[in-house]
Amino acid sequence: MSSPRMATALSRFAREPHEPRDKNMSSQNSMPRVGVRATGWFTLALIAVFLSACERAGSQPPNGMPPPEVSVVTIAPKNIPATFEYTGQTAGSREVEVRARVTGILLKRNYAEGSTVAASQSLFTIDPALYDAAFKRAEADLSAVQARLQQWQREVARLKPLFKAKAVSQKEYDDAVSNQSIAAADVKASQARITEARLNLNYTRVEAPIAGIAGRAMRSEGNYVTGPDVLLTTVTQIDPMYVLFGISDEERLKLHRETEAGRLVLPKDGQFDVKVKLAEGGLYARSGKMNFTGVRVSGTTGTSEARAELPNPDALLRPGTFVRVILSGAQRPNAILVPQRAVLEGPQGKFVYIVNAEGKAEARPVQLGDWENDDWIITAGVNAGDKVIVDGVMKIGPGAPVRVADPNAPKAGTPAAKAAVNK
Length: 423
Hints:
With 423 residues, this protein is an alpha+beta fold. It has helices spanning 3-15, 33-58, 129-164, 170-203, 249-260, 415-422, and strands at 69-74, 78-99, 103-109, 116-117, 122-126, 205-207, 212-214, 224-226, 231-248, 273-277, 288-297, 303-310, 322-339, 344-346, 349-355, 361-365, 367-372, 375-380, 387-391, 403-404.
């Protein structure tokens, strides 16, 4: 409301009499004239204050007053590293089940449960008596067939010159040659039985197939072990350590679209650098590489499996631990960053204020990408060279003239600013 209109309203209110609404009200029941006049002036004062406030709210700043001061950032695209974070779980790089290859009574456990074992170290001993006897019997059988072979070899050697001289029949010579061949075959069969008996005897010594951490024994001494059907223990190799995690199909498609659009450059062959964040919040000191990405998407979780490998010489990482997996090595070329506090929410979505060529605030709708520390990555809406208003947005509206603050000026409240005021 303008000042003339306000003055007219006030003067009209002052001239009008303020009588009781009920004219039939007796003078004894009516308010005293002084009370009516005081109430009227009080109401008049309230109206004046209200109209004055309306006039201030709806009017522009008086002539000569400077426009509100704002701080801006000038958009300058730059290359920034891109990182991705997922939930993962550690696993041994090799996890082997230890099983006996022969049946028998378990005589002894030869390792400390939970300790580090070397490859080929004996873990269990199965009663070898039967297998030792079988091996010796096979050796004796071999000696017998070897003697028979030597006998027929000598017989063939004796008959050969006689056969040439036609002193013996063809049948007699052929039978000797055949018996020599049969004895030679028996020797080979006996040698195979000796090899089998030797293997079975050696298998009574159950060894660690790899170096790693041996688990608890699943069978104690005195139990009858029925060969490979019975699990005795496990050995897990924890150096290097695997970290398994899942990448959602939505995330995979998003990365693909950003790569195709040129907004994201992935490392060659997908060899991301990998670091892990432990349960207590700290980062694991050693980094590794991503070495596997599955093709199949799980119908249960909607994710595809991925795996990273990290060195673990100190055995700090243990299998089954939940960690946060941080992938680095990708890059966002010519990314546009805007401080998060500059992005506002409107009826049409996210927007920022920029200072246009006329020195006025202009609302600009934007599309947001990911966070980068304290900034938003803007994928559309602003361009290089635009001046985005960061501080002072609460003092302006669309089309309002603004004054850009000097970025080199000392901030209010600092000793430098107080010194400048006192000059």
